[in-house]
Design the sequence.
């Protein structure tokens, strides 16, 4: 082993510790028997048991999963359309502005996105009476706007890697543009669509700021419940909940990356 | 075959062309990719568009397929104007340079794709695909995905897919470009056999002159968006119409000079670059005292140590380079004027007792009918 590779392995080890030590301690403390968060009292799964008997948390988890599922699906439909237009329309006037619009939600501070959507929903309610009050619908709309941007970017990059002659070959063999989209383009970009869906799902599940702005009473998402619980003091229950969420998000991200890898191999 | 003795269609007066390209121009912004091209291609031809990159040959092919709209001009196929006919409605199929096989479909599904679009009954599709798989000798790979195939196998699948709809016209974009040399040679002959068997008109785009020579019934040489010469392979090689064609096809030695004796049945040409005068045994139609180029192919020259008994077409120089290629050797000979002439000689015997070698002085001579006089 050379000195250089020793340096590399030590620095990567330090990096990993920096990134994952807090998460690891959280996971370990979720199995703590003691009621005091900072005192270790031996192993136990009682906080998990308690967690699943807490109706407030289960309700919030169901809201979050429902929102994430619908958001991811809507974001994929809109994101695929946007990505397809941006990579296949060729040059059209204002293309730069449109592609800027699509990716703007990626860099917009969440506080601003949340606030502006709240203002939009309130004024819409005053003008046309829809959406009546704030709740799951408004959270879904808000999440879709920023998740769609991620899907559009992923789909667009996949389409730009795709050989143009594949679509031309389909046309040449008698496929009209709409059937060629479903028969050739969509299957080829499907790994990007799946990974976009998974990414949108995890991001919606994760979001606290925007959801806090646009949700109404009785429709708290899981991150909102966790946040409000922590304000009353950290309970070991929250550690257990956070561990479960880490697991779900990790599975989602790994699956998304695996899909992206797969796409590279088949191209 | 009873047709073997009849004249090819393009030599018959009044024969109806299958493809008529009339004054076609295609511009991309300011750039003119195809510049006022007119060309007739006849049924059952294997026509090669030969040119370097950026010559416009691929654009012309894509115009036929319907992927590019014309700036001006007209394309007729089998007498029908193609102006408003979309690619999916044209009686044409194309084999793409990248093969463009659908990566998510098996070989059999790739081949069946075109028939399914035409709503051919399922049973017929199966039969025709099976038949095509057998013809292309790829039955063993029917269930594989394209990324599990070798380059040569992919090429066959692409060809099978483009032939399955029995098109009247098949366009091939660099069909052998991605194959290695040995496979390319085999496939060349196979392509000719398939074309002959199915009676489909082929239009092939290639940058490889050897490929064009082997495949084509006729070659159209393209450069800068213009077709410079359309002729049978032998004529393109032996009677190039311009300097561009002469230099593009094979290698050739060029001497610039002026005609000093212009008769009906012969001309004599003087060149500062050569230490002899040139004699050509046919008349040239050109202005008196016009600048011309005398072109002579490397294999048409004779090499000798002793001065041959001829006044014209006899150069003297020194060997500066020899390249042994196995079947032949290439000599580079420097003349007194500094011009370097390239000569190829077949290696007829294994051991030459008195071989030509570096620094030898030799005479180069050729017959009166071996050279070509180019006026443009």
Sequence:
């Amino acid at each position: 082993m050379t000195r250089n590779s020793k340096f590399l392995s030590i620095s990567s080890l330090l990096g990993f510790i920096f990134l994952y030590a807090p998460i690891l301690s959280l996971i370990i403390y979720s199995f703590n028997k003691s009621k005091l968060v900072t005192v270790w009292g031996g192993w136990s799964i009682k906080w998990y048991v308690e967690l699943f008997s807490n109706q407030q948390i289960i309700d919030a988890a169901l809201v979050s999963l429902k929102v994430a599922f619908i958001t991811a699906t809507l974001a994929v439909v809109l994101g695929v359309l946007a990505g397809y237009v941006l990579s296949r329309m060729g040059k059209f006037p204002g293309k730069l502005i449109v592609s800027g619009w699509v990716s703007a939600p990626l860099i917009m501070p969440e506080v601003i996105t949340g606030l502006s959507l709240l203002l939009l929903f309130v004024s819409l309610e005053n003008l046309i009476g829809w959406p009546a009050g704030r709740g799951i619908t408004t959270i879904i709309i808000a999440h879709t706007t920023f998740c769609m941007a991620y899907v559009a970017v992923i789909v667009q990059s996949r389409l730009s890697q795709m050989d143009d002659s594949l679509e031309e070959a389909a046309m040449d063999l008698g496929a009209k543009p709409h059937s060629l989209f479903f028969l050739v383009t969509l299957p080829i970009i499907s790994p990007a669509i799946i990974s976009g869906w998974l990414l949108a799902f995890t991001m919606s599940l994760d979001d606290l700021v925007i959801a806090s702005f646009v949700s109404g009473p009785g429709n708290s998402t899981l991150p909102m419940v966790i946040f409000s619980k922590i304000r009353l003091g950290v309970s070991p229950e929250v550690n257990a909940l956070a561990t479960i969420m880490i697991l779900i998000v990790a599975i989602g991200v790994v699956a998304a990356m695996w899909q992206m890898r797969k796409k590279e191999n088949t191209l | 075959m009873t047709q073997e003795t009849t004249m090819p269609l393009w030599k018959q007066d009044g024969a109806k062309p299958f493809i008529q390209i009339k004054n076609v121009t295609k511009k991309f912004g300011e750039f003119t990719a195809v510049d006022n091209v007119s060309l007739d291609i006849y049924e059952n031809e294997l026509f090669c568009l030969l040119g370097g990159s950026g010559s416009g040959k691929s654009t012309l092919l894509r115009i036929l397929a319907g992927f590019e709209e014309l700036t001006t001009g007209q394309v007729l196929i089998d007498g029908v104007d193609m102006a408003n006919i979309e690619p999916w409605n044209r009686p044409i199929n194309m084999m793409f340079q990248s093969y463009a096989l659908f990566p998510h479909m098996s070989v059999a599904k790739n081949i069946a794709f075109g028939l399914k679009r035409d709503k051919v009954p399922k049973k017929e599709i199966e039969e025709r695909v099976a038949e095509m798989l057998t013809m292309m000798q790829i039955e063993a790979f029917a269930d594989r995905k394209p990324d599990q195939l070798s380059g040569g196998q992919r090429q066959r699948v692409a060809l099978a897919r483009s032939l399955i709809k029995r098109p009247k016209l098949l366009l091939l974009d660099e069909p052998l470009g991605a194959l290695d040399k040995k496979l390319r040679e085999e496939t060349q002959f196979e392509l000719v056999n398939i074309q002959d068997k199915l009676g489909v008109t082929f239009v092939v785009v290639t940058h490889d002159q050897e490929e064009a020579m082997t495949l084509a019934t006729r070659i159209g040489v393209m450069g800068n968006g213009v077709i410079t010469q359309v002729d049978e392979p032998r004529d393109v090689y032996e009677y190039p119409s311009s300097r561009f064609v002469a230099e593009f096809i094979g290698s050739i030695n060029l001497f610039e000079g002026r005609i000093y004796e212009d008769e009906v049945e012969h001309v004599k040409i003087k060149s500062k670059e050569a230490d002899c005068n040139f004699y050509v045994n046919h008349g040239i139609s050109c202005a008196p005292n016009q600048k011309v180029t005398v072109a002579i192919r490397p294999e048409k020259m004779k090499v000798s140590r002793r001065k041959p008994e001829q006044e014209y077409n006899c150069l003297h120089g020194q060997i500066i380079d020899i390249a042994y290629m196995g079947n032949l050797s290439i000599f580079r000979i420097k003349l007194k004027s500094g011009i370097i002439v390239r000569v190829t000689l077949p290696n007829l015997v294994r051991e030459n007792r008195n071989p030509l070698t570096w620094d030898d002085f030799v005479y180069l001579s050729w017959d009166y009918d071996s050279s070509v006089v180019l006026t443009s």
User: Anything to note?
Assistant: Chain A has a mean pLDDT of 87.
